[in-house]
Design a protein that fits this description.
By secondary structure, the protein is α+β, with helices and mostly antiparallel strands. The chain has one domain. It has 9 helices and 5 strands; from the N terminus they run E-H-H-H-E-E-H-H-H-E-E-H-H-H. It has helices at 21-44, 105-116, 130-142, 180-187, 191-210, 219-231, 254-257, 261-267, 271-289, and strands at 14-16, 160-165, 168-171, 241-245, 248-251. Strands 1-2-3-4-5 form a 5-stranded antiparallel sheet. Helix 1 runs parallel beside helix 4 (180-187), helix 2 (105-116) packs antiparallel against helix 5 (191-210) and helix 3 packs across helix 6.
């Protein structure tokens, strides 16, 4: 595992601030937006509403007995018809205009905060050029890489730590809990809100992705590739042994060290959080393949 220079060796407990810890948070946001895409795609495939309103027809009036001619009463004056009340038409609220890409940071920030539904993620957001940074981040994840300078989010406040046991160095399991709030945020999001948010932001995301110069690919396609890349991450239950090179740590297990950087990121979130993220991704891919 190639760990950032901030993850440097220090006396026990060994701690190091790591900008790379922000990648795990950003990966969670990647899946959140992906969720909106797949739910949206599924809902729009049929081209018609999936909810149908049944209209009840009125019961026919019972037939009245025929009246013989001898007993026909004098016709009574019909009561004056009351005027039919005018029903005011319900005005459909107009969608708020989408800002220009260069001026979209405040708009996107507000949408992300609304999705958080009270969770305190505001201090974690990088509020500069949010759409472009996120798109570049997704593009790199799809290639198994991490774009250090384009993380959409700040790192967790807690530090990455290791622990020494019988002269061996291991990733401290307490470090996994830095990512609990983000994994829980992902699993607790409302599907309908994801759909609405993705629909609103999709034109901005596609515009930013077009700037990367892919002639025959959409951001939706790249997002799908990024999700599959993370879905291939193994879940590691046993303690993870590390060794240090200068100020960096790497996995002792050569199979883990050979994994793409994006997958090694997810491993650093811990097995429980990895399972949560992969469960959501797997469900989304099932929806996509229906």
């Amino acid at each position: 595992m190639q760990v950032n220079e901030e993850d440097r060796i220090a006396p026990q407990p060994q701690r190091a601030n790591s900008a790379a810890t922000g990648w795990a948070i950003a990966a969670v946001i990647l899946i959140v937006v992906g969720a909106g895409y797949y739910f949206w795609s599924t809902d729009d495939q049929d081209g018609e509403p999936q909810t149908r309103t049944e209209v009840a027809l009125p019961e026919p009036a019972p037939a009245e007995p025929l009246v013989t001619e001898a007993n026909v009463p004098e016709p009574e004056a019909a009561p004056a018809a009351e005027p039919t009340p005018t029903v005011a038409e319900t005005e459909v609220p107009k969608a708020e205009p989408l800002p220009e890409l260069n001026e979209s940071d405040t708009y996107v920030h507000d949408k992300v905060i609304a999705m958080a539904d009270g969770m305190a993620i505001d201090p974690l957001l990088n509020n500069s050029d949010m759409v472009r940074q996120f798109v570049v981040f997704v593009d790199n994840i799809a290639q198994g890489q991490l774009a250090r300078k384009t993380s959409p989010l700040q790192a967790p406040s807690q530090s990455f730590t290791v622990t020494d046991i019988t002269n061996k160095t291991y990733l401290n399991p307490d470090s996994y809990h830095r990512y609990d709030v983000y994994a829980d945020f992902l699993t607790g999001l409302d599907d309908e809100q994801l759909v609405t948010t993705y629909k609103r932001l999709s034109p901005l995301l596609e515009q930013a992705f077009a700037e990367l110069g892919y002639p025959d690919m959409s951001f939706d396609s790249r997002l799908k590739e990024a999700m599959k890349e993370l879905l291939a991450t193994p879940v590691i239950e046993q303690p993870i042994e590390l060794y240090s090179i200068s100020v960096n740590y790497q996995f002792v297990d050569p199979k883990l060290e050979a994994l793409p950087n994006a997958q090694k990121l997810l491993i650093r979130m811990g097995p429980e959080n990895t399972r949560k993220v992969k469960k959501v991704m797997r469900r989304l891919l099932e929806i996509m393949n229906q």
